[in-house]
Amino acid sequence: MATTTDPAQTPSAGLAGRLRVPSRFPYRTIAMGTVGSTLLMIAALGAGGILIKDPVLGHGPLSWVRYGHGRMLANAVLYTGFGLVVWAWVRLGRYVLAGRIGSRPILVAAGCWMAPLLVSPPLFTRDVFSYLGQGAQLLYGLDPYANGPAELDVLPNVVQNVHPLWQTTPAPYGPLFLLISKGVVATTGDNMILGVILMRVVLLAGLAGTLWALPRLVKHLGGKLPVALWLAVASPMMVIHLFGGPHNDLMMLAFLTIGVLAALERKHVISVVLVTIGMLIKPTAAIALPFIVWMWANHLSGESKVRNFLRAGAASVGLFLPVFVAGTWLSLGSLNLGWWSGLKAPQLIANWLNIPTGIGEVFYNLVHLIVDVQVSPFVTVARAAGMLLLIGFGIRQWWLARGGGTEAVYRAGISLLAVAILMPPTLPWYLTWGFVLLSAFRWQPRHLALVVAVSVFVTLVYYPTGEQALYDWWFIAGVVLASLYSAASLLRPDPLGLIDAWRRPEKFLRD
């Protein structure tokens, strides 16, 4: 991955030299990513989140792509496509670092890379099937916060495609998102293919909102718009996970980013309302509310900071409660607060991608070498310690944000990242919560390289079917190497000299 350059690039020149080289529109890089995305879409028909009963390939002459060697071929094509997308993204990042392209090529690239995935089966997840199942529950008068989609006696295609883990598990999402899912199912019925496509189309509204907010956030937070768009919009986490998934985080992020922008622009009532609405889609947005209180307090006139904080806090609570109550009532037809208990459902997922869970598993394996014990006490204690650490870290970040302004936004962003890392479970797309806000700040190249490594790693640690690959250690070793190579490629094209090594024999023959 990321080992060659576009014709617009001077291979022998350093980064400073490339700053002086006029750039052409990176057609080849965009085309490479588009080819990769198209391969992802085609291969996902055999290796992605396929349906139990698929009307497209289920029993036709091409059904072989889902079994045996056919499935192996589909996986090979899919990972090839993934490699091309990452390669193109890293090349685009090098142009951004060199200051040779503006925002337009990045937006064109992201649009071209997402377009084939609009009609793709879900990639690296099956969550969208759960969305449709929970929306169907609400549509047919059932309480998605009391039981899972298995209680439905209608729409068999919707029910049977929900992952077994979530068949009997209450919904962990906000009531407003369930209302959106209800609308999608009311339109598409038992047609799962149309349901997935329409869900992606609806979630594009979230992407549009984030795109509207990012340029304005960059102006306030001191970053560079091409960098922000490259990080937040064109990255594999956005293209493949949030859109190709798809995931409702895409909608929540729109309300979060616009709400934070409103706070920076002293539109505090709008800010609290928007972030509260985002919370009604996915509760994670609530992490930003305490930081917004500081921002409001610092915009108030008056010498007493304590009084300003109390005024801002009281006003925020006064806005939050009616919006929360009205949003819940309009979404569910009642003030059903059962969705709070549903927030515990994701904790059923246990793997080492969540750092406290991983630490618990390490201690369990060490003790298990000597004594036959169960893993659950070790994981439970480690998760409890992780929660205490998260609470302490969050309180400290909130206190450091008391000056308001851009500092509060930064602290909110890293707090969102901390929640994604320390609070079980940690799922790959959760990292976008913090990255999207932080993308609007100024970044150092080495930090961007770290983001590349993380982006590639977290996208690959789940199989294309949505099942975790975290305990396939040889596979994970390959993922780590690919992630590190991608990161190095951002700072230096062909970091291992692979292209030069390939070309030398040809040069020798010519000589």
UniProtKB/TrEMBL annotation:
One Pfam family linked to the record: MptA_B_family
Superkingdom to which the source organism belongs: Bacteria
UniProt KW keywords: Glycosyltransferase, Membrane, Transferase, Transmembrane, Transmembrane helix
GO MF term (any one): glycosyltransferase activity
InterPro entries linked to this entry: MptA/B-like
Transmembrane regions: 30-52, 72-93, 105-124, 192-213, 225-244, 272-297, 317-340, 352-371, 377-396, 408-427, 447-463, 470-488
Record-stated family: Belongs to the MptA/B family.
Protein name (database record): Polyprenol phosphomannose-dependent alpha 1,6 mannosyltransferase MptB
Lineage, top ranks: Bacteria, Bacillati, Actinomycetota, Actinomycetes, Pseudonocardiales
Gene: mptB
